[in-house]
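Friendly challenge for the regulars: who can give me the C-alpha cells for this chain first? No prize, just bragging rights.
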Amino acid sequence: MGILGFLLGTMAGVVGGRVAYRLVTRKDSNRDVGGRVVAGITTAACASLVYVISDVHDWLLPGSSWGMSVFMGICMGIAQTVLVRDKSLSSTENRS
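First reply, four minutes later:
Bragging rights claimed.
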C-alpha cells in the first residue's frame, strides 16, 4: 500500500492545505502569510496521518520507523507553504 498511500496522502495534504488557506484568506487578502502557515501545518498533518496509516515509511525504507512518514509529511507541508502558495486548484478561476 506504500505508493498508493503516498499518492493519497499527498493529495489529501494538498487539498486540505488549500482549503485551510482559502478559509484564512477569504475575507482579507492581507492575511497571506498567516494563510500560508496554516496551509503548511494542515498539509503536514493530513499527509503525515495518511502516510503513517498506509505504511509509506516501509515503502521508502523497509524496516524504518513511522518517523520517516512524519518527515515526509513535514516536507510536504514546507512545499505547500513555500513553493505552491499562490496556485489554485480551480481551472475556472479568474487569473488576472
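The chain has a mean pLDDT of 84. The chain has four helices and no strands. Your move, everyone else.
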